[in-house]
Amino acid sequence: MTLVYITDQIYLHGGIERVLANKVNYFVNELNYEVHIITTEQKNNIPCYEIDSKVILHDLAINYNRNKSYFNPLNLIKVPKHYLSLKRKIKAIKPNVIVVCNFAFDFYFIPFVYPEIAKIKEFHSSRHFFHQKRLENKSLFTNFFNKINDYIESKYHCLVLLTTDEKKYYKSNNLLVIPNSIDKHLGKIANTGNSKKVISAGRIAPVKGFEKLINAWSLVAQKHPDWVLDIYGFGEKEYIKSLENLISSLNINDKIVLCGSTNNINEKMLDSAIYVMTSETECFPMVLLEAMSNGLPIVSFDCPNGPRNIFTNNVDGILVEQNNIKAFANAIINLIEAPEKRIFFGKNGHNSIEKFNTNKIMNCWRNLFIDVSSFKFKDYS
């Protein structure tokens, strides 16, 4: 079996990059597949997560300007080169299956390149807000664009979603749900009963809601000034600056640390007591699985379709009403003041992620690759 994965880059820390690295390493080592990753803007950077040397990397060096819309003229003029370069590369590789990970121009033309090759589109984010906007915006242009989008999706042999909740947002009948995978850490787990650190991690962008987390922490710090919040991740400079200004305005500079990105997030989690998340939207946040594998209890906003599919409220964490900052702060305070509950939730979470066992999840992918490469069409809905 020869696979091609297509994405924009694999040098920036993120959920897609982490999941992709885990998958390709498994496929080349456990299933002996030939696996290629084709990027459009790797820019000579090394992958941010370890990728086995048996995985073959290709970069087309299209280098779209990501500060502008894909439909900006400066990006549109690069589309022909992108199309022709990708088509030549696929012809040379001759894969059985192509998997599209990101959402760029290649999403639109891949279904029509080499029809004898099976194509899969992975979706890594929730369509909740997109669906809401689609219902609200009835303009002719928007309806036309949405119909094109639906048509393109129907031309993939399979669309892979992360949760069953997401299926209602799609018009196609070529849907399959395969969650992300993770294995339990069999060695150390976090010393949640003794640590006085709370941790959060992710791309530093408005969608992650870190300003809400900072406002909530200002309330926590009033009751527990000896506790510290560490936030890990890279991101948008202007947004980071606004977070720094917010921290200063709340006079909690010594209570919150913006730590930047790290390659050792597991070690940081092991040194923490609670994991927290205040995202506006998530689909299947890998970082929650990582926190649970390290034995951390979770406090998270109940954002659409994400956290509730990973952990259970009052069993291995606390789900808080979306955007309720005071309730979020109280949930953290509740766990700070109940170390036995932190330990209980952490152990439950560590055990519950067995349902996302790597061998189990990768076997789903293996079966899908066999089906689509044999052009055994199914109604996956």
Features:
15% strand, single chain, Glyco_trans_1, 381 residues, Rossmann fold, 2 domains, 6-stranded parallel β-sheet, 13 strands, 7-stranded parallel β-sheet, Glycosyltransferase family 4 protein, alpha/beta
Q: What is the element layout, followed by pairings?
A:
Blueprint: E1 2-6, H1 15-30, E2 34-39, E3 56-59, H2 73-76, H3 79-93, E4 97-100, H4 105-109, E5 118-122, H5 128-136, H6 140-154, E6 158-161, E7 175-177, E8 197-201, H7 210-223, E9 228-232, H8 237-249, E10 256-260, H9 265-270, E11 274-277, H10 286-293, E12 298-301, E13 317-320, H11 325-336, H12 339-352, H13 358-373
Parallel strand pairs: 1-2, 1-4, 2-3, 4-5, 5-6, 6-7, 8-9, 8-11, 9-10, 11-12, 12-13
Helix pairs in contact: 7-8, 7-11
Domain Glycosyl transferase family: 187-350
InterPro entries: Glyco_trans_1 (IPR001296)
Protein name: Glycosyltransferase family 4 protein
